[in-house]
Amino acid sequence: MIEKLTGKIRETGAPVVVGLDPMLSYVPDGVKEKAFKEYGETLEGAAEAIWQFNRQIVDAVYDLIPAVKPQIAMYEQFGIPGLKAFEKTVSYCHEKDLVVIGDIKRGDIGSTSAAYAAGHLGMVEVGSNRFAPFNEDFATVNPYLGSDGVKPFLDVCKEYKKGIFVLVKTSNPSSGEFQDRLTDGRPLYEKVGEMVASWAESCMGETYSYVGAVVGATYPEMGRVLRRIMPKSMILVPGYGAQGGKAEDLAPFFNPDGLGAIVNSSRGIIAAWKQEKYSAFGGDAFADASRAAVKDMIEDLKKAVG
């Protein structure tokens, strides 16, 4: 799957992933009203609204980008109907030939981590049948329980040619409370980066590994260090736009081949219609606003990164 991701980045010229992280407040009234008319103001109604919202955005942007990243918490908050909307979103994105990064941030020990890996990236056996329950192409993984929480994901990646992005230095303001702590005189995130580099060597594609890393756009100098530590890992870069990350800060995340990183924008794209810059589109043309925002992001990255 890493070959598909790098190939689509080359094909589109856009190292961009759109975060499908829908809050009901992002969904225009017209979409919500239609869903509520059919299902009522219920969990089912909310799930239908975010599914229809996602579908229209995907229709508007799929030809411009290589990948999407649905954040599972935005679906889980609506219970089982929300998870069904997540499943439908993943399947629809695959129909559009998009790479799907499941932002699930899972990581546990032993059989629990193996179950997460099977459910999201691999397959489960039910009697004589086998199923791929969620079937994402990549998943985000929390490594802070140690290597026995990551190994089941590595095993699934090797078997099914799927991938993971391991949390190394996250974009949120308080990430330094733990990730920047010194251990043997070095920040913990550097130690995690070295572990990622080791896991990456054991799970290589043709050029890049199936094991990538998450490093926030809000920390470009740390990104420079981690790019050197993890030369064969694709870096998923959150924090661009709404969280304060700027395009001019992103060059250190990329390799000289122009690859090596993919930059995420979530609300900056899917809620573009609510921004002053795109307000002329209005709620009825929210998907067109998202397409315009994707085009602007691509141009922004080209000017800054090349």
Overall description:
With 306 residues, the protein is an alpha/beta fold. It has one domain: TIM Barrel (Alpha-Beta Barrel), CATH 3.20.20.70. It contains 12 helices and 12 strands. α2 (29-39) packs across α3 (43-61) and α3 (43-61) runs parallel beside α5. The longest helix has 20 residues, at 286-305. It is globular and about 60 Å long. The model has no long low-confidence stretch (mean pLDDT 94).
Look at the structure and give the mean pLDDT: 94
How many β strands by DSSP? 12
N-to-C terminal Cα separation, in Å? 24 Å
Tell me what portion of residues adopts beta-strand conformation: 15-25%
Would you tell me the structural class of the helices and strands? Answer: alpha/beta
How many separate domains? 1
Label the overall shape.
globular
Low-pLDDT residue intervals, each spanning 5 or more residues: none
Cα radius of gyration in angstroms: 19 Å
Number of helical stretches of at least 4 residues:
12
Write a short abstract of this structure.
By secondary structure, the chain is α/β, with parallel strands linked by helices. Helices cover 45% and strands 17% of the residues.
